[in-house]
Amino acid sequence: MLSRxxxxxxxxxxxxxxxxxxxxxxxxxxxxxxxVQRTWRHRDGHPGDPTAVLRELVRYATLAPSSHNxxxxxxxxxxxxxxxxxxxxxxxxxxxPDDHHLFVSLGCAAENLAQAAMAHGxxxxxxxxxxxxxALDFALMPTRAIVSPLFQAIPERQCTRSPYDGTPLSGPELxxxxxxxxxxxxxxxxxxxxxxxxxxxxxxxxxxxxQMHDPAxxxxxxxxxxxxxxxxxxxxxxxxxxxxxxxTAPRWLGSRLFDLFLTPQRExxxxxxxxRSSAVIAVFVSxxxxxxxxxxxxxxxxxxxxxxxxxxxxxxxxxxxxxxxxLRPQFGGFLGIGERRADLxxxxxxxxxxxxxxxxxxxxxxx
Length: 367
Hints:
NADH Oxidase; 16% strand; alpha+beta; four-stranded antiparallel sheet
């Protein structure tokens, strides 16, 4: 899910290639920084009228993660109600042919909305509309406002796609994360021993190798990469190269560097280093393989990610074992989960924040 590889490989070599070509990208860091500041923030004061409150809840919902940062959602606002609908025009058929990640993303947005609603004195009760492409309706009722640490963490959360520092987490921290990541029909499994995480890494490598040899996967990934700040600001979506510390370039050059440096071995080496620097790997597992449970898995992951953020812990996805359909049953066998579905694989630990992804404007997601 959610974003992983940006034109990977040797960043120094890529930067040297840019310099040698005589092609540079004019820095638009102020515009990018301004977009980051507008996006990743809490609002000062109460929004005011009820419609403004609902729009603010939607804004918080859009700060959720989504596969390749596609932001595959639409929102409608009614009288004391908000609906989250899938936007199938932004689906990723190569990496997500059954739309599993798409509905997980809706769940992530739903959890942000629920946390923000409570902070604004509204209880959010959800109903899944299986008859309408899997929309999620929220009825909002007045209640005592609770500004939770999870709500406070929403603008700070990110998928941090870099190595971590390898330090272990405490027992109380793991307990909080496990509690946050569990829900109705969804369980989170935590793996701390190197024997287990090495086995998971083996499945990541197998899945990554299969994806690296799939032209449709590569084309889809490249289409969602934003190779420079101007491109990231203009689209407000996709995978910004700076978010993994890679250099920026004009799209024509970045695309060529992507083709040059994106290889299975480079990627596999990168994932090995990332897994071995992480404290724990979490796997989210659903009781049933359907859209309603995919949404619930997204909500559980988002609570987990917000709780981790509140504790100063970073996380990132390693979803190759659940994205490659031929590999998923083998991975499930390793986990011992029977007929249940493994939804998400996440590594986490302590590390430095990376540059931010961006979001589209409100008018692009409201219907």
